[in-house]
């Protein structure tokens, strides 16, 4: 167990992040998950029986000091860092021409600044292990829809993945962008419920993330 790979996942207490964490733990990996809700993280850990290879860290992905502290705590606890998964994200589910700007700042900071801060905080440790960065984007970042500011943030994540790849591969660090369509997760809670039509599952996205990490 002490030699098994270590992955840090932001927004890992529910949805896609939690599914990735469960699958990695099941494969014998060690996992650190972050989230802003301590209760959600506690419930997640309790639901898994608080396994030895799981570390939960409360914090805001848009605050660099907290992101850096999460990376440092992970390395201190497990002795290394092999991968990070920038999964934390949020949406206001409104439009740029008719929506409420009050929620936009948090969305932009979480979705765009958050992944960049994670890369910055983790790159030293990842260079040592020749690890991998996984960014969770969205089909919305490729397919423009009317007034969709969330999609614009995911377009930025797409660009961030490629720009990061062009730099850090020289240091032996890989970069993967995962861009799913609509997924059945708590992401839709603020929307008032799941959208119509067939949705992907969090475990299906986790399958792709694990493939990338392997």
Which features characterize this protein?
single chain; 214 residues; alpha/beta; two-stranded parallel sheet; Rossmann fold
The CATH architecture comes to 3-Layer(aba) Sandwich
Instruction: List unreliable stretches of 5+ residues.
Output: none
Named CATH topology: Rossmann fold
Could you state the CATH homologous superfamily? NAD(P)-binding Rossmann-like Domain
CATH uppermost class: Alpha Beta
Helix and strand succession?
A: EHEHEHEHEHEEEH
Q: What is the global morphology?
A: globular
For the secondary structure, the number of strands is: 8
User: What's the helix count?
Assistant: 6
- Rg, please? 16 Å
Structural class: alpha/beta
- Major sheet details: 6 strands, parallel
Q: State the end-to-end distance.
A: 17 Å
Spatial strand order of the main sheet: 3-2-1-4-5-6
Fraction of residues in β-strands: 15-25%
Mean pLDDT across the residues is 92
